[in-house]
Amino acid sequence: MIALIAGPSKPPRFAQGLGLPYLGAVLEEAGFEPRIFDLYPPSPDTDDTAVLDERLAEVLAEARPEIVGMTIHTPEYAARVRLARLVRERLPEVLLVAGGHHPTAEPEDLIRNTDFDVCVSGEGEETLLEIARRVGAGSGRGAMEWLDGIAGVVYSRDGEVVHGLRRRNPDVDSLPQQAHHLLGLADYNPHPALGMRSVGVVTYRGCPKRCAFCLNPQGHRVRHRSVSLVVDELARVVQEFGINGFNVYDNLFGLTREHSLAICEEIVRRRLKVVWDCWTAGDLVDAELAERMRAAGCVRVGFGAESGDDEVLAKSHRGFSVAQHQAGLDALHAAGLKTQPFLMVGLPGESEESVRRTVEFAKRCGADEVELSLHRPYPGTALWQRPEEFGVRIIRGPNFEASLETQSLSREAMLATARNASDELKSGGVGGGDFLRWDVYDWE
Ligand code: SF4
Question: Of ligand 1's atoms, which has the minimum distance to the CA of residue 318?
């Protein structure tokens, strides 16, 4: 048995991300028995970590998996390392596999300093399947030479960290449909933006942009799913689970205009009654596409504006200007779609003046909600690897926490400027929105 562990993150839980249902599907298709454990069901009788740990330990002791896999994003680093220790104490022989953004960016630390045995880089379906096959054939913890030759793995052998060959990302149409049934969808809460239960889907993987603050673990090559397979998946979820809500987790909906248009047209042609949201940025969505999205059930669009200052956008290699963002937002608003721009303070070139321009953009852009956060640099990004190239200094904390200084704003000044911006937007009630997130430097 292969256990894939989601959570713990703060309840309530909405639709789970895409990674584990895709991994589960690939393993099931090959005849393995994966299970997904989400530590936080939607109506928990407790969120006491010790109690949840004990529950997980009991389940693992009963199921006795040969492999335990966890996805790690950098903010969860400490929690995942702690969980790995707990699993190791209960199941000393289990193979602990880490995948996702953080193991892709910083595998050596996980291999040298934590209980994880193997890191999987990038998209993990084919790599985890190969690991499962070899474990199924009798391999396990120990000398680990059996991992030699598997692409996409990082592990320790004879005290040395070994990096396997890079794996070419898969053709997305060759992957099976996500194993939504492994998530126990009935247990999740309605998604707040959709007002109903929902599942995540993608219409493509990859991103050609090179934003300095993004790890882009799916690579720059864009791989589209065929239109019929995407809409088949929506129809199957509606029919099998009675769920009509979808979160389209494309990096940028509308990136390939004809593909996005075709998805919308196919939903309308099949008369599928679905409700969905998605993400985009810049002027990728024009008036015609926005109308088709609305007709196909889209109700809300998260919008990666990031800044209201053109110089900051250019220095961050965002690939869009403020005018392009406004054009995209105008098209979405004209079609009657709600938008939620995401803005950050703390990007390259940030100054008091640029933050002022971001605040003014937030006020005038016409969005229903604006989310302002403090930028936290992440391992694996161009900013993290080459800060001097972007004119910034990165101050690192424990567990990969980090903050950023520019030539104009010290760390303290950045924090104060961001606080003032947040207060101003809150007191102005930007577009009637009340959803202003505040990421403080939380290691202090
Ligand atoms: S932030 Fe979005 S647009 Fe930029 S590289 Fe990452 S996925 Fe692509």
Answer: 4
What is the token pair recorded at 22?
A: 């895709």
279 lies in a domain?
yes
**What are the CA-CA distances from residue 118 to residues 9, 82, 99, 111, 190 (Å)?**
23, 16, 9, 7, 35
Query: What pLDDT, on a 0 to 100 scale, did the predictor assign at position 8?
Result: 58
| Residue 42 confidence class, pLDDT cut points 50, 70, 90 | very low
Q: Locate tokens 């989310």: which residue?
A: 371
Distance 309 CA to ligand 1 centre (A): 18
Domain assignment present for residue 439? The answer is no
Residues with CB under 6 Å of ligand 1 are 207, 209, 211, 214, 216, 251-252, 304
Residue 147, pLDDT above cutoff 80: yes
Q: How many angstroms is it from 375 CA to the middle of ligand 1?
A: 14
Mean pLDDT over 173-196 rounds to 87
How many Å lie between the centroid of ligand 1 and the Cα of residue 282? 12
Residue located nearest, by CA, to atom 4 of ligand 1? 211
CA 211 to ligand 1 centroid distance, Å = 6
Q: In this prediction, does ipTM exceed 0.85? A: yes
Task: Give, using CA atoms, the residue closest to atom 3 of ligand 1.
Answer: 209
The reply to whether 258 and 399 lie within a common domain is: yes
Q: Which residues contact 420 (CB under 8 A, 6 or more apart)?
A: none
Cα(406)–Cα(390) distance, integer angstroms: 9
Residue 336, sorted as left (phi over 0), alpha (psi -120 to 50) or beta, turns out to be left
Number of domains in the chain: 2
Residues 279 and 326 in one domain: yes
